[in-house]
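To fix ideas, we close by showing one paired sequence and structure record:
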Amino acid sequence: MIKALKTVGRYIMLMGRTFARPERMRMFFHQYLNEMGQLGVNSIGIVLLISFFIGAVITIQIKLNIESPFMPRWTVGYVTREIMLLEFSSSIMCLILAGKVGSNIASELGTMRVTQQIDALEIMGVNSANYLILPKIFAMVTTIPFLVTFSIFAGIIGAFATCWFGGIMSAVDLEYGLQYMFVEWFIWCGIIKSLFFAFIIASVSAFFGYTVEGGSIEVGKASTDSVVCSSVLILFADLILTKLLMG
């Protein structure tokens, strides 16, 4: 318990240093653009691929398992839409990104720590936490709404692919179900939740990487710990935010 409280305290202190005003805005903006490309743009491929197949699998599973003469044919499209909007494209996708992006951030900062690059920045009078971590957090928070949007569209396209090429059901019925009782707030709920998840992924992974001590083995352990901790915090935040936004 004491160790956990100590870790939380170190995390809060690190975030206090991180959110200081950048000394050189031009350099910060340059780093911010680089991190957007590395953390956000490079994640579009895996987001589209996974969302496409998940949308297709959800449609098939719902069609095969809840088919009943007492239920309208458009129920499959309706349930698929609700799953994609409310949980998968925001929460589950961020869990996947925690593994990809979080481990990337932790291993990058951890390597810089063990090779004394961060110490060199401190000796030169640079706020290393602000210089290295803040652009990553801003980049993740900026790009995550676009990744969520891409995930939603890719999942819907995957659902239609099961109709066009798999013959699971009529595309007209699926389309009607996707449009039935559409609530725009559900999209905003997913985006709002993803903003919090993006901050958790970037800040927690940066903390584990920035504070690593030892050699390459500790860097690997910090990368693993960052993914595990980020995933647990995302699930906990998902519970709280869903209650607040949908309650």
